[in-house]
Amino acid sequence: MASQSWFEEVRHKARSALDKPAPYGPDIDVTAFGEGRGLLEEEAVASVAGRVGVSTAATAFYIQADNAYFRYLSRIPGVEVYRLEEFVEEYRDVARDYLWRLVPPHLDKYTAAAALRGVGGYVIRVKSGVKVSEPILACLSIVRGGLQAPHNVVIVEEGAEAVVYTGCAIAPEAVGLHVGISEFYVMKGARLRFIMVHSWNKAAHVRPRTGVLVEEGGEYVEYYANLASVKTLQTSPRIVLKEGARAHSVSVVLGLGDAVIDIGTVASLEGRDAGVELATRAIAAGSSTVTMRALVEAWGPARGHVECSGLLMSERANIVTIPQLAARHSDAALTHEASIGRLAEEEINYLMAKGFTYEEAVSLLVRGFVTTDIHKYLPEQARRYVENIEKLITEKAM
Fold it and tell me: How far is CA 284 from CA 207, 278, 329, 386, in A?
């Protein structure tokens, strides 16, 4: 039972980490951000959610604005959507098996703040054997400002399949700190395809914390994109793969203005024949700084590959790549590749010789840079989302 003592244990661990900074990224004073509980108008929420393609017209959705506005439902048989507090109340015996299991509340000051001050977040449960290709949509937005720290849980039960699309956004004039806690469970033989889009503003600070468990024979496909300005962004999801499990993770990050972005994915290959591919593409414009980290750690006969590619669009921008591999077993096979550079003049000139203008040539090359092989892992509707994201990133990078 999710007893009071268990919640108190979570809060006790969180309190011990209130002053514990994250190992990477600028340190943020969490106490400077209020609770964000003011009343909101439907039109204001819909406007922000619409920027990331989420609306209440979807068949299954969860929309949260600040810590005050919640709308959610599912019309898909076998797919349940809850607000976190509702799930905990209704399934007390189950909740503690999924909350704070993959992301500890005392990981750092941001998880601590989420455990002690967080409100809302979605719980999506896809029942055993149910296969859904239509995306389940979610939007977590900051409209008036302050701290938003929702806790999201996705459970894809044995043999089930689902696509979850989450857009996180902020109103243009708002100042906020977003700390989204996400815990994803892909059970035996299940498949989860997860798309996340961030659209912040130049005053926003973002610290998502994500843990993913992929059980035997399961598959996890992730696509993450940041397509707007942000003040600081730091995240490092951790994926654990059991026997025969697979994961494919692609991140496409756009650094604009003076943004400081530090992203990375950690994959722990704990089962025999597990496999992972981590790919990150970063575009740095203005005076932005983008750091790309990746760590693949193999504890058995498994395979992993890391790719980090950076594109500099300004002489004042900076990109750093830090790929790491760790083989803890003699039959592990791990590889990585990394590159950073500007667009090649000869490629631009070649396209201009074919009749394209300079701007068109650059746009084509940038679009090619942000386009990855993620498409082959996604159903049609999700592929269209990703194609639109690639188009938006290309336009904003120009």
Answer: 19, 20, 37, 20
